[in-house]
TrEMBL record:
InterPro entries from the UniProt entry: Flavodoxin/NO_synth, Flavoprotein-like_sf, Metallo-B-lactamas, ODP_dom, RibonucZ/Hydroxyglut_hydro, Rubredoxin-O_OxRdtase
Highest classification ranks of the organism: Bacteria, Pseudomonadati, Thermodesulfobiota, Thermodesulfobiia, Thermodesulfobiales
Superkingdom to which the source organism belongs: Bacteria
Gene3D superfamilies: 3.40.50.360, Ribonuclease Z/Hydroxyacylglutathione hydrolase-like
Protein name: Flavorubredoxin
Length: 390
């Protein structure tokens, strides 16, 4: 764990998880991650904002002992265990401390961690907690990431503690953002995997953040933003309705027929000056695809028929697209089959909650012939026409 001073009486207590490569048994972490807690010491009281993952509890406890403080309040912005999982141990260290959170988060903490209900101080939108010369204000910001999420604003220093909001999975010894392009990609990946399904809520909560004009944004994953404009502007771009002249082609092919269609489509789209990214679904980390789903205008799924439906790798990708709810405008489907297929129905049904514009699918029998490749060229021309209206 590293202790870094942000300003007088304000510290970042960060556990770096350099070696972690999977989160939630789902998301890959190419750069590891961090769990950040923050300590705010007023002239009278001391508050710990969020805690750390249970695997790192010992580091947080050691740091609190090193700082030789008495914690009066544990602020819980979010009940997920990577931030709340050490609250029980912190309460054991400071038996008089109270957990400060909103009523929804309190319920979660009782359900998830069995924290005693009389250990809570429940706050509402706009409530303030005086620490003596330091004032914490609480803003209720649901769905960045769960329904109970809130953010905490240190008024005097204008530091905003946002927990998962604006997070990035990136282990780093640096307190602040140093390599902007690396943090941009890590934060975009984080947004795509965690926040994108709640784009409208992110938009509302971003307005709350802007209204506070923070000087520093301190999330609970990744580095602290010394220049909040960097992450606020990036998030504004990701949540906007703007899409890029970009086609993603996630594909799988067992014997090469679908791959021939994919390669022809990549060629035709490229000739039409459309940016294309091709992903092998059996080789690519799905997070790579999610990042580009943030702003791609079109996704064309390419799959052979397996037991009447899409190949399981394509089925999984389709499920993730429907769950992540990207702002993608157009969806296409191409692939090869042998004797009979329900791929179009299955994929269309799975995507139906997105109310997608599905471009006429191109399913061909067996290995592509010249006339099949012509259909792929026509598909590229259709996509190009649609992209002219972006
Ligand atoms: C395990 C397996 C199951 C298949 N099930 C079907 C099926 O239900 N319906 C069908 O039309 N073709 C089925 N096929 C045939 C493939 O869809 C066909 O060979 C196709 O051309 C494969 O495309 P690819 O070369 O891109 O892998 C199956 C093939 C395999 C290997």
């Amino acid at each position: 764990m590293s202790i870094k001073k942000i300003s007088e009486g304000v510290w970042s207590l960060r556990s770096n998880d350099w070696d972690r490569r999977v989160f939630d048994e789902l998301i890959s972490l190419p750069y590891g991650t961090t769990y950040n807690a923050y300590l705010v010491k007023g002239s009278d009281k001391c508050a710990l904002i969020d805690t750390t993952d249970p695997t790192k509890t010992y580091e947080l406890i050691n740091d609190l002992k090193r700082l030789n403080v008495r914690v009066d309040y544990v602020i819980s912005n979010h009940a997920e265990q990577d931030h709340s999982g050490s609250i029980g141990d912190v309460l054991n260290l400071y038996p008089d401390a109270m957990v400060v959170t909103n009523s929804k988060c309190k319920d979660f903490l009782i359900d998830l961690l069995h924290i005693d209900s009389d250990k809570f101080l429940v706050v509402k939108e706009g409530d303030k907690l005086e620490l003596g010369l330091k004032t914490l204000q609480f803003k209720i910001t649901p769905w960045v990431h769960w329904p109970e999420t809130m953010i905490t604003f240190l008024e005097e220093e204008k530091i905003l503690f946002t927990c998962d909001f604006f997070g990035s999975h990136l282990a780093t010894s640096e307190l602040y953002v140093t390599d902007e392009s690396l943090v941009y990609m890590a934060a975009k990946r984080y947004y795509s995997e965690i926040m994108m399904p709640f784009r409208n809520n992110v938009r509302k909560n971003l307005e709350i953040v802007k209204s506070l004009s923070p000087k520093i944004i301190a999330p609970s994953h990744g580095p602290v933003y010394q220049d909040p404009k960097f992450i606020v502007n990036a998030t504004e771009d990701w949540i906007s309705d703007k899409v890029k002249n970009l086609v993603l082609i996630p594909y799988v092919s067992m014997h090469g027929s679908t791959k021939i269609l994919v390669e022809r489509l990549v060629q035709s789209l490229t000739d039409l000056n459309i940016e294309v990214i091709q992903f092998s679904l059996t080789k690519t980390d799905i997070g790579e695809i999610a990042i580009h789903m943030v702003d791609a205008a079109t996704i064309v799924l390419a799959t052979p028929t397996v037991l009447l439906g899409p190949h399981p790798a394509a089925l999984y990708a389709t499920y993730l697209v429907s769950a992540l709810k990207p702002k993608t405008k157009y969806f296409g489907l191409i692939g090869s089959y042998g004797w009979g297929s329900k791929v179009v129905d299955i994929v269309s049904n799975m995507l139906s909650p997105l109310k997608p514009h599905i471009i006429s699918p191109v399913l061909i029998k067996g290995m592509p012939k010249d006339e099949d490749l012509k259909k792929i060229d026509d598909l590229a021309i259709q996509i190009s026409g649609l992209h002219k209206n972006l």
